[in-house]
Specification:
Layout: H1 2-17, E1 21-28, H2 33-38, H3 40-48, E2 54-61, E3 68-76, H4 80-88, H5 91-95, E4 98-106, E5 125-132, E6 149-156, E7 163-172, H6 175-179, E8 189-195
Antiparallel strand pairs: 1-3, 1-4, 2-3, 2-8, 4-6, 5-7, 5-8, 6-7
């Protein structure tokens, strides 16, 4: 118990002393693929305004890799109000492409962006792993093999003090291997989605 208390104190220290990072996941509305395609340039132009703040971005995909099922953006912004504006002013959201949004404080444990990922943009299977939980914080420290991690960090309450899960992007052989990065019994649910590097090439 003392160890866990120390981990929680460490998390609070990081939150209090570093900037605010946010995990944003827009989930697509069924049947919105055509509308999404029509708005591609508007979406990219909107995201161009946040180029310096983006830590990671890209679509989640259907298992065949042909259809987008959502959009992930991990971004460093001044405060929660700015993050909410970022999420809800986005052109796809305004036009009705998305059915819902996950917006949570997040912590960049790896200290780098997806563009620094040693594996580059192509090759291998990439996944979004989203674990939602409560209680004592879990998986604050990533696995020792960080070379396969593209982004990794805890999901936090709006005030940054309460752990509510973990979100990561990872290159892995298959969805089961991606899911295994997290401690299964510490989460109410763990979602695994095919994911790809996004943005302009």
């Amino acid at each position: 118990m003392a160890w866990m208390t120390g981990m929680e104190l460490s998390l609070r220290f990081m939150v209090d002393t570093l900037g605010m990072e946010f995990f944003c996941y827009h989930r697509d509305r069924p049947g919105s693929a055509t509308l999404r395609d029509q708005l591609t340039e508007e979406h990219w132009s909107y995201m161009d305004r946040y180029e310096a703040e983006l830590i990671a971005r890209g679509p989640t995909l259907s298992p065949d890799g042909e259809t987008a099922t959502g959009s992930v953006h991990i971004v460093d912004l001044p405060d929660l109000a700015t993050a909410r504006a970022f999420v809800f002013d986005e052109p796809n959201y305004q036009a009705g492409v998305y059915r819902d949004v996950v917006l949570r404080r997040w912590r960049n444990v790896l200290g780098r962006t997806m563009w620094d990922f040693p594996g580059g943009r192509e090759g291998g299977n990439r996944y979004l792993v989203l674990g939602l939980g409560s209680g004592p914080a879990a998986d604050l420290v990533p696995p020792s093999d960080r070379d396969e991690l593209i982004a990794y960090g805890p999901l936090l309450s709006d005030d940054g003090t309460t752990w509510v899960g973990t979100a990561l992007l990872v290159r892995a052989p298959d969805p089961d291997a991606a899911r295994a990065v997290l401690t299964p019994d510490r989460y109410a649910d763990i979602e695994v989605h095919d994911w790809a590097f996004g943005g302009r090439r």
